[in-house]
Design goal:
Interacts with the flavoprotein subunit within the SDH catalytic dimer. Helix content is 55%, strand content 0%. The chain is mainly α.
Length: 156
């Protein structure tokens, strides 16, 4: 293959082609597949890692809080969690008190895959979420016992 390339290009990349190796010098996959041993180990080690503190919003109005939570429920980063949380927010946020909205805000500070696994009962949630009514309501929503066809709700 190297003979086909122009001489200038061979000089610039020739040494790097032969130095490429897949031995132990390679790093572990930064995005392991869910439920693999590597993924479980990486998420367990992340629980001990210091978390980034959320932005304090001391004077946020209830209207602004609701609008922000609707948006954050929809724009998470993983489609699975986006769908679960945005439909949950659409069906439940109008009935939530300010204290429940603030608790939901704290839940949204968690990792997307953690929320997904806790809501689908694939993993045991940490103590701070294990016995909360909010997570129980989210789990009922996820079970979808009415077999409702869900899609991403439109933004207001």
């Amino acid at each position: 293959m190297l003979a086909i390339l122009p001489r200038v290009l061979r000089r610039s990349i020739g040494s790097s082609i032969y130095s490429f190796s897949t031995t132990s010098r390679c790093r572990a996959d930064p995005w392991p597949l869910p439920h693999t041993r590597e993924h479980i180990q990486s998420t367990q080690s992340q629980e001990d890692a210091p978390k980034i503190q959320p932005i304090p919003r001391p004077n946020e109005s209830e209207t602004s809080l609701r609008a922000r939570l609707v948006y954050q429920s929809r724009k998470r980063g993983t489609l699975e969690t986006d769908l679960l949380l945005s439909t949950f927010a659409q069906e439940n946020m109008s009935n939530m008190s300010v204290a429940e909205l603030q608790e939901y805000d704290k839940l949204l500070d968690e990792n997307d895959w953690d929320i997904y696994y806790w809501a689908t009962n694939k993993r045991t949630p940490p103590e701070r979420w294990a016995s909360t009514q909010l997570l129980d309501r989210l789990r009922v929503h996820v079970r979808n016992e009415g077999k409702v066809v869900r899609r991403m709700p439109d933004l207001p």
